Every structure is written in structure tokens, then in C-alpha cells.
Amino acid sequence: MSRITGTFCSLCFLVGLAFAATAIAQPAQPAGVPVLAYHRFDPHTPAATTVTTATFESQLDYLVGHGYSIVPLANIVAAVLRKAPPVASPVIAITVDDGHSSVYTVLFPIIKRRHIPVTLFIYPSAISNAKYALTWEELKEMRASGLVDIQSHTYWHPNFRKDKAHRTPADYAAFINSQLTRSREKLDAQLGTHINLLAWPYGILDPELEAAAAHDGYVAAFGYTGGVARPGDDPFSIHRIPVPDFAHGSAFEGLLRNAQAHPEGNITKAGHE
Ligand SMILES: [Zn+2]
């Protein structure tokens, strides 16, 4: 009896080992990649969508100190589209929406000093036009550094939800097409780029917008939900994490941890830019 028990236990052990080996052999579910979304920078004054220089530098220090590699956004898009293997080490990308002048005066010197790649989502109607906005010359200089990738944020940053409410379906479809195409064509013409990424204004998107972006030649588009980017995600609603000024120290760590815990994001209000 004891021999049978012994044999049984040995089998159990071997079966257990086989299961353990299978578990080890299976690739782990890749963790999501955080894509940070900023708007404005200020040396002193934080505001709703502004991060102070000190906070931003502390966030970069945190990332470097915790082994993150800050990579071009295109690398993450390739992984989401499964055109590149999922990234193995902790990586993160930095994006900045709207093209405010502080991108040139505050952010650009920091990323040059630290040699960090950044993607700017720009709506061209404001460039060299609105008081608060960057100029084409500044965009060209930043792009020439090799650190700054420039992509589309539509042509004039509409609130698509409002336009959908007051336009006829045909007019709305034409309006979407115009916003997506004009932005890409203007940026390409001014900067010699090949725009293929988009950030949705106010984080607003729906299936009609996604289909229009695909039809207009974009390969991926970004929302603003607080989640993370994962291989196989819908490429036209890739999650990003809005970064507020209070997110320094443990609050920044909490922001990243919350995004991994809620990879689909848990920001539902489109009360940002
Ligand atoms: Zn915006």
C-alpha cells in the first residue's frame, strides 16, 4: 500500500513538474506600455493642464531611476500593431498635445539636455497664428533635433461631439474628413513629414471617427483614458495617461500603477484638451 501511495505521489510530483514547466514555457501576458500625455509646461505656475518644470523633471528622474527607457512613440505603435515584438523591459513614451509655446521654451531645452524623444500632436490652424502657439520655425527646429516627432491633432481641434449634434450626417462626415486630411496635408507640406498618427481632441472618439481616420491614411490614433497601450489593442483608440502637476513622487508612481491596474483606463469625462 505504501508502495502504491509512493508511486502515486511520484506521479503527482512528475505531473506537477510538467504543469510547472508548461507554465514557465508560456509567454507572460505583456504588461501595458504607458504613454504619457502632457499639454503645457511652466517654470512656476501649475494650472489645469500645465506641469511645472520641477514636476516634469522629477517625473523624468523617477522613470530613469526605475529602469524605464523613454522610447519614440512609433516603437509602441509598432508593438500595438504587432509589427514588432512586445517590449520586454519597462518602456514609456511621452506625448504633448496642442502645440503651446512652452513646448519650445520649457520642454525642448529639457529633452535636449536629457536626450529624450517626444511626440507632439499639433493642430496646424493655431501654428504661427494663435498667440499661445508654437511657430512653424520652432517646429522645424525641434524636428531637426531628431528628438521631436510631429503628428496630427486634427486641423482646428473641434469638439466632434458638438459638431455631430448640429450637423447633418453627410455634413458631419465631410467635416471629419476635412479635419483629418487638412491637418495631415498642412503638416506634411510645412514640415516635410509623413504624418500617420493622430490624437483625438478632448479624447472624443467613436466608430465613425475611427473609420474616417483609417480611411484618411492614419495608422493609429490616441485617446485620453488613463489606460495603457497593449499589443492587439484597437489601433485607433490607443490609451494614454494624462499627467497632472500634482503627479510627483508617490502620486506619479500611483498614476502608473493605476494605469496598469485599469489598462482600459478609467477616465470617462472629456473635460480636458
Ligand atoms: Zn488637444
Report on this structure.
The protein has two domains: 1-30, no CATH class; 32-261, Alpha-Beta Barrel (TIM Barrel), CATH 3.20.20.370. The strands form three sheets. Strands 1, 4, 5, 6, 7 and 10 form a six-stranded parallel sheet that branches. Strands 2-3 form a two-stranded parallel sheet. The chain has helices spanning 2-25, 53-65, 73-80, 102-114, 136-144, 160-166, 169-191, 207-215, 250-261, and strands spanning 35-38, 40-42, 50-52, 69-70, 91-97, 118-122, 148-152, 197-199, 220-222, 241-242. It is an alpha/beta fold. α7 packs across α8 (207-215). Helices cover 43% and strands 14% of the residues. Bound molecules: zinc ion. Zinc ion is lined by residues 97-98, 153, 157, 201, 273.
